[in-house]
Amino acid sequence: MDSLGLERIARERLPALLRTCPKAELHIHIEGSLEPEMIFALARRNGITLPYPNIDAVRAAYAFTDLQSFLDIYYAGAAVLKTERDFFDLAWAYLERAAADNVVHSEIFFDPQTHTERGVPIGAVILGLAHACRRAHAEWGLSAKLILCFLRHLSEDAALATLEAALPWREHFIGVGLDSSERGHPPEKFARVFERARALGLHVVAHAGEEGPPAYIESALDILEVERIDHGVRCLESPGLVQRLARERMPLTVCPLSNIKLRVFDKLADHNLPALLAAGLCATVNSDDPAYFGGYLNDNLVQTFAALPALGARDAYTLARNSFEASFAPDADKARWIAALDAHFIQATQAL
Ligand code: ADE
Ligand code: ZN
User: Fold this and answer.
1) Measured between alpha carbons, how far apart are the two ends of the chain, in Å?
2) DSSP 120
């Protein structure tokens, strides 16, 4: 794309370009796409009494001070999810929004332990989500895959038991991840369950360096042997680690609006995405928990570019291209999506 003259694209045109270009989403927790309206609808359907009188009161509770203050509310909200149909409806609502954002491929996290601890069968969780993914592909050609996450505040034995319990539905998920409270729960706590997942041929990713130190990114790489780092923004505190991430072309799934709401950075203008890209890292932009953090993927992209004048059309192209390259999709799909992305940007420069 070097000969394209992307620099000639004016800043005013960036929002439309960001919104319309084909892209992949690699860091979205499906429980984090549970909108307050759906919390109320599912509570009614399942005969659950909520501690909030109305939707505005739910939104008013979304004032987070850090990751844990968010997680407390996020797990409470997820308690309205009970049946396979609930999980289908949840994923379908996300996939409709993703399709509207021109997402052509999404790798979706789910937290089975949040549900099995409340007595929901793991098969209902997986089958409901998988049904929505299949239908999105059949109806819109949107490729959607599932990644099963272990809750790191629980024990490794609980994670191992969860993985074994999920195996009858092995064909419905492509990988495992690690999320929840980061500080005090380093990646090495989960060495055995990740070894087991790798032996099963599953892809492996982990949240690291969101609130936790660069050492957690290193142990996710060295001990869990992850293929992507979720967040990873604190890597910039360690120049040696940045060099390694660039050399190994290790993807980072960055979530700008999440980082602001959880106070990793004070404001979008302070976000280190430009520095990550300038360091040659394979950064991608994602929504994390869009119902809680004020925006889906295109909102993350448009708001981040608006706040950071250092980001231009070339970065928009790079981020979308990185999203495809960092995905776990087959090479033929990646090549097809990247060709469509190139065509999109070629058209944008020809319209100048
Ligand atoms: N679970 C949902 N969102 C998360 C985040 N941003 N960090 C860790 N665990 C999560
Ligand atoms: Zn996350």
Assistant:
1) 16
2) -
> Is residue 107 annotated as a catalytic residue, yes or no?
no
**Residue 151 placed within a domain:** yes
**Global pTM exceeds 0.70:** yes
Place of tokens 């967040």: 231
Q: How far apart are CA 232 and CA 240, in angstroms?
A: 14
Burial class from Cβ neighbours inside 10 Å (0-12, 13-18, 19+) for residue 104 reads buried
| pLDDT digits 0-9 by tens, 122-155 | 999 999 999 999 999 999 999 999 999 999 999 9
Section 324-335 average pLDDT: 98
For ligand 1, whether the C-beta of 179 sits within 6 Å is yes
Give the structural domain span for 194: 12-33+84-350
Active-site residue identified among 182, 210, 211, 218: 210
Q: Is the CB of 232 under 6 A from ligand 1?
A: no
Measured by CA distance, the residue closest to atom 10 of ligand 1 is 180
Q: Which ligand is nearest to the CA of 258?
A: 1
14 in Cβ contact with 316 (< 8 Å): yes
**Contacting residues for 331 by C-beta, under 8 A, at least 6 apart:** none
Is residue 4 one of the residues assigned to a domain?
no
Within a domain: 128: yes
Token pair 């505190």 in the structure block, residue? 237
The pLDDT value recorded for residue 5 is 81
Q: Which tokens hold the place of 17?
A: 């370009």
pLDDT at 91: 99
Per-residue pLDDT, averaged over 275-296, amounts to: 98
- Rounded CA gap, 269 and 343, in Å? 30
* In contact, 87 and 124? CB cutoff 8 Å: yes
